[in-house]
Structure formats: C-alpha cells, structure tokens
Amino acid sequence: MPSLTQQIPNLNVKIIFLIHFVFISLSCMGFWATNAYLFYNSILIFLLLWSIFHGQLQEPLQLAIVVNGSSIILDILLLIMNFPYSLNGAAAKFSAAMAVLHLIIRPFTTFVLIKNLEERGGNTANIPNMFAGTRTESYEDIDRTATAAPQHSGQSGGYNFATAQPI
C-alpha cells in the first residue's frame, strides 16, 4: 500500500497552503492589521496555489520561498507599528496573537518549502540569483555555429555562381 505522500501529490505544499490560509484568515479578523498584511500574504497564497497547480515547476516555489522569507521581516515591522493597545477589543488582540503565531510558523514552512524545492530537482543555491535571468534555453546560437565567412574570389562587382554555397 503506497504511503499518503505518494497518494496525494504535493502534500507538503497543500498542508503549508492550508496552514497559511487559516492563520492569514484569523489574523485579518481584527482591524489592527493594514491592507499591506493582506497584500503580501495574498501573494504568498497565490504562489502556493500556482505551485500546487503546476507540480513540477520550480519558479513558483522559489518565489513562494522568497515571499515567505521576506514576510518574516514585514510581519515583525507590522506587529511593531500596529500591535493593538489595551483599549482595543478582544477580536483585535486575538487576531494579533494569531499573527504572532503565524510569524513563529513562517521559518518552519520556509524550510519545508526549500526541501520541497530540492525534491522537485531545484537547486536552492539559485534562489538568490533567480532574478538574474540565467536560464538555459534550448536554442542554437547561430553566431557560434556559423561557418567561416565566404571568401571573395577576387572578382568584384557581382555575385559569383561558381563559388556560391547551396542554401
């Protein structure tokens, strides 16, 4: 009998998607968080869905790792600037507590996403260089494979059919 990870493709990414979805939903219930919190977390959710839909692509998973890693810093800044004070209601305090728990979980989910990227055949050393545009293309560079330039036969003024190369 195959294991659960073999039966359900991309199980780790689906679990991470569910964890982030629940914590983002609970964190946005209070009015203390700005729209920026919802914005960068929505981008993360989109990238995780893209990664689930295209199970073998590496780019959405690489971007999800970068967004999740940078969200750690953004969450810290958001919590420092907008943490609800004692006059706020229980909903604001609860949602802020969920945002703190979400912040604590982010490094672990980033680590699992990195492991999943390695399983897909991706090189994690390329994550800092993924915006550099160093991709391998499947085309032949005609400048490198061109034969030597045709030599002129000393005749000037026209096309020489005797030394012409076939197309």
From TrEMBL:
Could you tell me the membrane topology recorded for this protein?
A: Multi-pass membrane protein
Q: Which GO terms describe its biological process?
A: angiotensin-activated signaling pathway
Note the InterPro entries from the entry: AGTRAP (IPR009436)
Question: Keywords assigned by UniProt?
Answer: Membrane, Transmembrane, Transmembrane helix
Q: Which domain of life is it from?
A: Eukaryota
The primary site where this protein sits is membrane
- GO annotations of cellular component type: plasma membrane
Q: Does the keyword Transmembrane apply?
A: yes
* Secreted listed as a keyword: no
Please report the name of this protein according to its UniProt entry: Type-1 angiotensin II receptor-associated protein
Origin organism is Ceutorhynchus assimilis
